[in-house]
Specification:
The complex is a heterodimer.
Chain A: H1 4-26, H2 42-49, H3 51-84, H4 88-99, H5 102-117, H6 126-149, H7 154-162, H8 167-196, H9 199-204, H10 212-222, H11 226-252
Helix pairs in contact in A: 1-11, 2-11, 3-6, 3-8, 3-10, 4-6, 6-8, 7-8, 8-11
Chain B: H1 3-33, E1 37-38, E2 44-45, H2 51-56, H3 59-91, H4 97-109, H5 112-123, H6 128-135, H7 149-174, H8 177-185, H9 190-201, H10 203-218, H11 222-227, H12 235-243, H13 249-273
Antiparallel strand pairs in B: 1-2
Classes of the chains: A mainly alpha, B mainly alpha.
């Protein structure tokens, strides 16, 4: 077993990473077919010439940044409140948001928006997408921040209160700095789940809010496309870097 | 109210408001719709009815539910079997634990969509695997590997394998290595110790991993849509269809409610088997 286990692990890591590595290799293949014809960056050039892709990438970034900022603030405050005293209702609904199948979250938000739009003169668009993303990111933020709070000594806050800080002052000047690395990690996680979401987004997006995953999905459904190989490589490299930074922050925390 | 309680209430309010507006109310609307009739132009209408639920028992839809449950079960077992040795390897790898764990977490957060697309690239008729096998002369016509249930199963296992590794690793990492030394001193072979000590002690992690994989698999929509082609219809596709092309919202709502019920059931199971996360 001593030798079999590392060998097995090697196989498992290859299974996990090889498909994406192959995609990256073929993204610089000159041929549009699965035959190596030499190095070329033409698919990357085609990617940067595709207005649809660039526009949707810009939408995705805007949505992800807005949703991340909102979800991180709301989630951090909620984590702190839950740490002070449990709230079965909020904890339960956060769990529920994590386990609800995305397709159900998506259609229920769609039904909800259509229902309130009967009374308000609004349409599906960036705002509905951002609200949906805030909704499903909060639980991730709370999980990461509350894990860090577990290792925080409440006596530090009490000391601050004894020294004349207000409740908010103690939170703001003592607890919050201690949480900073976890908050940064949580924000990056929220960003990655937001920028990657397809199912919920596609249901609540309007005509002006097509996101990158929506364009990728439409391309993938039509079949394999070398431009998509290039897009995939850029997205995977970008998200990978973000996650490594986030993990580092969480660990050095 | 003490200042501490006031601050806590203030901090809790935004999250509670967002969850109520974007989870509580929408689910209540879907629950209501599931008892209404289909409107003439999509949408919903009175009268109230249970017909949407009885229709789910129709063999046509019952079959979709069974197939979703079956394929999710296979994916769950597949993930557990593949993940356990990997988690064991990471838990016993000493100083490099974090690196090995990061290598599992990385694909977990990388775009799910792109990871599925990578398999389309490998499995299609003119994909890498078929091209390579043909070049080697092993086959003369491409093997039909994409757009079938096997591809869906592969996609589910590939997609959710990291979900299984993490909880398994968490339980394995906490186990006292002295137990294995004791077992060896008492004459147990490593395989014996694995089945009599390591695996029984890992049961909470195994249950958590099973639930974490099974729940998203049952509700999956993009895996069957991208890798299964139009042949593989699972509950997720059924729900999506009712809300888009078929425009039968009440029926889609009823199917959604069944999915939610399953998810909540799993959640309660998980709470029994794991310590609280929140």
């Amino acid at each position: 077993m001593k030798r079999a286990l590392p060998l097995y692990a090697l196989g498992a890591y290859l299974f996990l990473h090889l498909p994406l590595a192959i995609l990256a290799i073929f993204s610089v293949n000159a041929s549009r077919f699965t035959i190596w014809e030499g190095f070329s960056l033409k698919w990357y050039r085609a990617m940067f010439a595709d207005r649809d892709l660039l526009e949707s990438a810009a939408n995705s970034l805007l949505i992800a940044v807005a949703a991340t900022i909102l979800a991180t603030i709301i989630g951090t405050l909620a984590a702190y409140a839950l740490w002070k005293k449990a709230s079965p209702w909020l904890a339960g609904s956060l769990y529920l948001s994590l386990v609800t199948p995305e397709i159900v979250t998506g259609i229920s938000l769609l039904a909800f928006f259509q229902w309130i739009f009967r009374y308000l003169h609004l349409r599906l668009g960036m705002h509905t997408v951002i609200l949906a993303h805030v909704s499903f990111s909060i639980a991730y933020v709370v999980l990461v921040v509350i894990a860090r709070l577990r290792s925080f000594d409440p006596a530090l806050e009490e000391a601050a209160l004894d020294l004349g800080e207000t409740e908010f002052g103690a939170f703001y000047r003592v607890t919050l700095p201690y949480l900073a690395p976890a908050i940064a990690a949580a924000a990056m996680l929220a960003f990655t789940v937001s920028i990657d979401d397809y199912v919920i987004t596609s249901l609540v997006a309007g005509v002006d809010s097509r996101t990158l995953p929506m364009v990728i999905y439409a391309m993938a459904r039509r079949g394999v496309n070398p431009v998509l190989n290039a897009v995939s490589t850029v997205v995977v490299a970008g998200l990978g870097a973000l996650i490594l930074i986030s993990e580092r922050l969480r660990r050095t925390a | 109210m003490t200042p501490a309680n006031r601050l806590r209430a203030l901090f809790l309010t935004p999250a509670a408001a967002v969850m109520l507006a974007t989870l509580g109310v929408p689910l209540a609307i879907v629950a209501t719709y599931s008892f209404l009739s289909r409107g003439a132009y999509g949408g919903v209408e009175i009268p109230w009815t249970q017909e949407n639920y009885t229709r789910l028992l129709d063999p046509l839809y019952g079959g979709i539910f069974l197939r979703s449950a079956w394929i999710s079960l296979l994916a769950t077992v597949g993930c557990l079997v593949l993940a356990f040795p990997l988690a064991l390897f990471i838990a016993r790898s000493g100083a490099r634990k974090n690196l090995y764990l990061a290598l599992v977490i990385l694909p977990f957060w990388t775009s799910f969509l792109i990871r599925l697309y990578a398999w389309m690239f490998l499995l299609r008729d003119t994909g890498l695997i078929n091209t390579a096998l043909e070049a080697l002369g092993v086959i003369h016509a491409p093997l039909p590997m994409l757009y079938n249930e096997g591809a869906v199963l592969l996609g589910l296992i590939y997609g959710y394998l990291p979900f299984a590794v993490l909880p398994l690793y968490a339980t394995l990492e906490r186990q006292d290595p002295a137990l294995l030394d004791a077992a060896a001193d008492l004459g147990a072979t490593p395989v014996h110790a694995l089945f009599r000590i390591t695996i029984p002690l890992s049961m909470p992690g195994i249950w958590a991993a099973a639930i974490l994989v099974f729940v998203p698999c049952v509700g999956t929509y993009i895996v069957s849509d991208l890798l299964g082609g139009s042949k593989t219809v699972l509950i997720g596709n059924l729900v999506q269809n009712q809300f888009t092309s078929s425009r039968d919202w009440p029926f889609g709502a009823a199917a959604s409610l069944v999915l939610i019920g399953a998810a909540i059931g799993m959640l309660l199971l998980m709470r029994k088997s794991r310590e609280e996360l929140l």
